[in-house]
Every structure is written in C-alpha cells, then in structure tokens.
Amino acid sequence: MMRKTVRLLVLVACVLLTCQGSIGAMQVSGAQGAVVKSSVVTTRTVPLSVKVVFIGFNQSTINVTYLLWKENIPFRRVNQILTEPKDTGVVFELNYELAFASLQFEKELLAFLKKIEVSKRMLNPWFGVRTNNTLYDANKLEDWLYEKREMYQGFPANGYTFFIANLTQLPSVTYDQIARPWLRKPPTPHYFSVEYRDLDLEYLIRNREFMTAWGGHHRFWFLDLSAGPSFNTPSDAPLQAVLTALEIDIHTAYGSSWLTQYLSDYLWESVWNLAVPQFTYAPTYSAKYRIAITVLDNRTKEERDQIPIRKTVRTDLIKKSYKDLLPYSNFEVTIAFQNCSDDQDLSKELANAYKQSKDPAFRYVDLRPLYKYLQAKLSRYVVNISRNETEVTIPVFAFAFSKSYLGYTYKWDVSRQPTSEETFWGLAQEDMVVLSLTHESEFDRGAIVDPPQPNKGMGFSQLIIHEVGHMLGLMHPHQYGDVQDFVASAMSYFCFDYNFSLFDKDALHRIHADAIIMQTSAKIAEAKTVAVTKLTNFMASSKLARAEEFLALADKEYALMDYIIALEKALEARKLVYEAAIDIEIFPRATPFWAMCFLIVGVALGYSIRRSLERKLRVRIKSTKKDDIFKNL
C-alpha cells in the first residue's frame, strides 16, 4: 500500500511540473516582442585618467602640488545634458599624471618642426595686415607625436593626454609687436596649419593656417602657448606677451603660482571640452538612424541655373561620416529637392517671416514662425518618424536663399548686440534641424573673396553633418574655451572637417555603453528581487548568471576604452536578463505553490489512509462472519 501512495505522490508532482513547464513555454514563446521595463534607477561612476606633458617649461616654475588642488583642475565631472535640467547618470572621477618632457625630447621636437617649417607672407586676420608667418603642418606634428610616444612613456590605458608647450625657440611674437605697433617692429608669429576644401563645390577654406593647437585623430591634443595670436581665439594671447604685459616673473613665488594657475585654466578647459564633454541632447542608442533631408530652394531662376541645387549636397559624404562615427549602427540618408515657389503655403510663410531693412545686413528670415510651421507640416515632408532603439529619425530642412540667412529674434538691447549677429547657418532643435545657406555668400563664394576662386563655393554637406552631430548629442569643442576649437572635428567652427574627432567618437560610444550597462544592471537587480519570491527557475538563474558574465566583460572592455566591444557585450547581457525576467515572471510565487502541493499531498494521504482502513474493516467483517458460521455448525 505504501508503494502505491508513493507512486501517487510522484505522479502528482510530475503533473504539476509538466503543467507549469507547458505554461512557461507558451508564455515565453508568445513574449518575444515584449519590452521589459526597468523600474530600478542606477548611476555609474567612471574613472578616467588625464596625462599632462609639459614641454619647454622648467619644473621649478610650476607648483605641482598647487596645480593638483581641486579648485584648479576638475577631479569630478557630472555628465550633463545642456538643454535639459538633468544628467546622464554618469559621473567621471578624474585622475591626473603630470610629466615634464626630457630635454632630448624637446630637442628632437624642435628639430622636427624646423624641418617642416614654412615661412609665408600673407594677410594675418588678427593683425589686419600682411605679416611674415612661420607655419608648421599640424597633421605632420600630430603624427610625429604619436610615433614618438615612447619618449614620454606613452598614453594612459584609460584616458587622454594633453601636451602643453612653450616653444619660444621658434619665431614668436613679443609684447611690443602686439601692443605697441608704433614701434614698427614687424610681428613674427608662428602657427600650426591645416587645409580644408568644401567637397560639394570645391571651395578652399581660407585662413586655416592660424592655429595654436591641434589634435583629434588620436587620444591626445597639443597646445603651444607661445604660438599665435590667432583671430579665432582673440582672448588667448601668447604666454610670453602676457608675462610682459602683466609684469610676471615666473621665477618668484608669486610668479610660479600665477603660471600654475594660468596652466590649470587651460587644462580645465581641455578636460571639459575634449576629455569629458557634455551633451546638447540626451544621446539615444539606436540600431538605425534615418536622416531625412529636404532641400528647399528659394533662389531666383538665374541662380538655380547657375548652380544647380543638386550639386550642393552629397548623401554619400554624410552617410560615410556617420558610419565612421557610429560603426555599430546603420544609417539611411534620404534627400528630396523642392522649389519653395511650388509650395504656396511655404512661400507665404517665408514671406511673412521675412525681416525687411534698408541695410542688407539686417535682413533675415525669422526662424521661430518658420519652425512652428515646419512642426505643424512635418508629416508632409517626413513620414513614419520614430525615436527608439530600432530607429531614430532625424528630419533636416535645408533652405537655399539668395542673400538673407535665418535669424532668431530676442529682446534686443541696442547698446549691446545688433540684430545682424542673430543670423546663423543652422540650428539643431530637439525634433529637427533647420539650416540655410545663400547663393551669394556660400554657393558662389569664390566670386567674392580675394584672391578669387572662380566657380567655387560651399555646399550643405558639411553643415548638415555638423548640425546632425548636435542631434546625436555632441556639443561644440569650444563650449568652455575657444582654443579647443582647433581640433579635427566636424563639430569645430574653425575646422571644416567632414569627420569626427576621436574625442567625439569616444563620447558617444561611451555614453551608449554606459546607458545599456546601467539599464542592464538595474534589470538584474530587479530580476533578482522578484526571483526571491518565486519558485526556483533554473533556466532563469542560468540566464542571469550569463548576463552578469557578459556585463563583467563589458566593464573590462570599457576600462580599456574599447567602448564598441563594451556596448556589444552589454547588449548581449541585456538580452539575457530580459529573457530571464520573463521566465521569472511566469513562474508562480513560492508560498501559494507549496501550499497547493501540501494540500494535494494531504488529500492524497488522507485518501490512501481511508482506503487502507476500509480494506482492513472489510477483512475483519468477513472474518467475524466466518467465525459465527463455525460456532453455529
């Protein structure tokens, strides 16, 4: 009888587990497209190293202890969104390594620069006259610094390197040349030069010879404080001129403190602008980005015939640039061309938004009413707009005007800023990009410059790449200081690059990885909390364990600055934890399940006992009857 009872209990358990497994399998199968949301909020602290290499400075003139004071350089940086009152959840903890280049390194650097030195007499925009300018190829210098990295013990495994140089051995300006032109001392500045050309209409961008810093192709940036002055950084005078103007002797106690503070200010700007930049908008990771460009031509027929609008933009350049920026995502770039005169509603809106003035410099198209119109009519130009991890749609409206630009009006203080300065090439709003170029000043720019560049001009492609960069989250590299604008990036105003710097790439790759890692960590914690209240689910437990392994691998790659691999591992971890969360959800809570089991077992045992007692009773009754028969024989 006991064997039958045991078999009955085993049968009941098997039925329960089979039913439970069947239900689980059906629910997992039906939930493949479900999105599991995390209700646990996490933050993330990220260590990052900053190496500073001083070149041409006597170590005795810099107070290293004072330099490393928290009020001189940043040690903690909250990663914020500039357009919103929130942050990304990431906090950078910065560690510094200070190094002074050896005399041998300085000697070889100067010898290399002398080797590539070019003297060029030309109009210098800062001085406003023709000067003798000593120029050094910035890209060649960057390559040389990278090749010679062993001479300064290389780069940090998890961070960036900033070179701060004082190379007055090169031809450099003096205070008298800058502030006392009546002394008739011709300026002798030196600069670092690059060359950029518009790839739409082939215009050679002018005055790119006047840089005092450079970097962006590697994880370092070079600044020469003795170079310049440059028209692009009017607030940054060469160090030797500043020392004379302020009567600073760096060999005194105060002079050493002053120089240390001066250097720390440049270091602070460099860290904030390049190493740990903020974001214009919250970066959204997506498997696909669709850039939908609408080019709206508002020029005259003669202008359209002279420079066809289709020559002013190249989708291949735009797609290539963004595929280089985010290689793990797909990019689709579409473009539509339309004459504004073919759209009566748009033509009327443009006419109503046009600011008339006797002075051409004060004529512009007011963006605010035009932006409102485009918002209302957005579906007419771009269909199926989405913003999620499957696809992010970025609408771009590019206006081609004859002479006037877009403008954004504010309350105007006449004594401070004329309205002509409110005009701009483009603006990245949260939901779209709106930009404009003119036929006279951009498309046919070669006709208005000296020396002329016949039939050359500037098109939309580089401007679109720049503004869409803002939509993806990137800020300007000159947000907290002008000199960092000398960087190989499409986000720079000074440079006319079609590609993004390694600082830009790191910023987006890092935050995409951060977001997925934080989301996955939160989901693992939530899943474990729920799992405690449920029956043991070996499949879910296995997936959670694997998710944690992938997350550990993601952190390992992240620490080595291989953010792309870190993102891939984090996505694998997130997929596993979402699957585990579904498995956990469909399992019953532990207390009701075991109560049900005990109830069934109790019923089964009671039934078995009852059957056993009944059988014994029947046997006894039969025995009694048999005894009575024998007694009565």
Key features of this structure:
single chain, 633 residues, alpha/beta, six-stranded mixed sheet, five-stranded mixed sheet, 18 helices, disordered C terminus
Describe the secondary structure blueprint for this structure.
Layout: H1 2-29, E1 44-55, H2 64-67, E2 76-81, E3 86-100, H3 103-116, E4 118-124, E5 129-137, H4 138-147, E6 159-165, H5 175-179, E7 190-193, E8 213-215, E9 220-224, H6 239-245, H7 253-275, E10 288-297, H8 301-306, H9 315-325, E11 330-339, H10 344-352, E12 354-355, E13 364-366, H11 367-376, H12 378-381, E14 392-401, E15 405-407, E16 423-424, E17 426-428, E18 433-438, H13 439-443, H14 461-472, H15 502-531, H16 538-559, H17 563-586, H18 590-631
Parallel strand pairs: 1-3, 1-6, 5-7, 6-9, 10-11, 10-14, 13-15, 14-18
Antiparallel strand pairs: 2-3, 4-5, 8-9, 12-13, 15-16, 17-18
Helix pairs in contact: 1-17, 1-18, 3-4, 9-14, 15-16, 15-17, 16-17
What does this protein structure show overall?
This protein has 633 residues and is an alpha/beta fold. The chain has helices spanning 2-29, 64-67, 103-116, 138-147, 175-179, 239-245, 253-275, 301-306, 315-325, 344-352, 367-376, 378-381, 439-443, 461-472, 502-531, 538-559, 563-586, 590-631; strands at 44-55, 76-81, 86-100, 118-124, 129-137, 159-165, 190-193, 213-215, 220-224, 288-297, 330-339, 354-355, 364-366, 392-401, 405-407, 423-424, 426-428, 433-438. Helices cover 42% and strands 18% of the residues. The strands form 4 sheets. A 6-stranded mixed beta sheet has the order 2-3-1-6-9-8, sandwiched between helices. It has a 5-stranded mixed beta sheet with strand order 11-10-14-18-17. Helix 1 runs antiparallel to helix 18, helix 15 (502-531) runs parallel beside helix 17 and helix 16 (538-559) packs antiparallel against helix 17. The radius of gyration is 35 Å and the shape is flat. Residues 15-41 and 629-633 have low confidence and may be disordered.
